[in-house]
Amino acid sequence: MSGAIDNQQRGTWMLSGKRILLIVCGGIAAYKSLDLVRRLRERGAHVRPAMTQSAQHFVTPLSLATLSGEKVHTELFSLTDETEIGHIELSRSADLIVVAPATANIAAKLAHGIADDLASTLLLATDTKILMAPAMNLRMWLHPATQSNFKLLQERGIAVCGPADGAMACGEFGPGRMSEPLEIVASIERLLGDETKLPLPLANVSMTAQAEPLAGKHVIVTSGPTHEAIDPVRYIANRSSGKQGYAIAAQALAAGARVTLISGPVNLPAPAGVELVRVESALQMHAAAHAALPADIFVAAAAVADWRAAAASKGKIKKGSSGPPKLDLEENPDILASVATLKKGRPFLVIGFAAETDDVKANGAAKLNRKKCDMIVANDVRPESGVMGGDSNSVHLITKSGVETWPELPKGEVARRLVARLASMMRGAGQ
Ligand code: C5P
Prior knowledge:
By secondary structure, the protein is α/β, with parallel strands linked by helices. The chain is built from 15 helices and 21 strands. The chain has two domains: 7-197, Flavin prenyltransferase-like (Rossmann fold, 3-Layer(aba) Sandwich), CATH 3.40.50; 218-306 and 329-428, CoaB-like (Rossmann fold). The strands form six sheets. It has an eight-stranded mixed beta sheet, with helices on both faces. β19 (395-399) and β20 form a beta hairpin. The model is unreliable at 1-12 and 194-209 (pLDDT under 50). Bound molecules: cytidine-5'-monophosphate (C5P).
């Protein structure tokens, strides 16, 4: 059974038949709500959408109606809606009300009892559980009014998922991005699966906004596979696509760092602004990594080949009558360990990846010790997981202080969070 199907089936079991009223407010993150509808329906939930006036500037009622298979409610004073269902019934018949994106405006209205449109009236006229996924500009999020409104709402039992930290549509960097649909789904599953878990804590909220938290820092990222020549036409390789490493390089750049991306052979455009060093073999990647030092952060996301041909042939090896040739292998240098154990000039943070097929967490923790790095990002690369070459990843962050498991997220989102985490680790250590 595939990992994705596995997750989906677990979810289907949890959300099957659940009725969710989804209120979409006006923000650029509204496009993610379309995906949220899909994810919820995949898991067996019935989704009834309602939209504010401003949400309709970002996504259309038609898109939401098509994806949900339901009528979309937009008007407080709608004659047909009132005869057919009524707004009170709309919010009371749901098992959960999800507000995504939740703007500063809707939070302010609910915190202060204002009901001047359909969305705010639905929220006020019910005692159904509510989950809000805030999304707004970071200054709006950090404004004392917004902070105290969300605090008040949480004290009243409203669950809040996010916001996440990172690069925003407005070009700034900090907290305020809406959580990814799969994370919101995970919160919904938690809420509907375990009645005791209300309210959720505000996740990942850093109260200090900084436009470019890695400004002035040098980040080196290794990425992609390596190719180990057997002869001029044949090589040993692996299935790494380089997507995760490239996404990390892009996010480090967005966070203001100077970024050196040392890449094995991949079919990806380098993010504009990174210093790209193309290599083929592990030996070349090792040399390029040490040549790019000094750095503040070293992220080894490459899937480096463990072995190379002991003696690559200068000419193409011919098919002969004596059967297949013998291939002697020799161990490649461990680039990550060689950087992490530098006596002089070790980067402040050295981060490794662990692509595992079994015992992901235990093997990741063993790697943390063996390679002397500060964090291992461990993921499951069994073929069924779809991680190798795929667009999403579910990772465990392993440090000396423990293991933190993230939900399945797009690789870009894993990168954004990882960079935000690295920036806060640097900041926490006064770097
Ligand atoms: O030992 P293993 O290959 O599983 O370790 C994975 C981690 O070590 C990854 O971060 C990878 O980029 C790094 N690595 C390396 N040089 C090698 C082998 C792995 O930097 N020769």
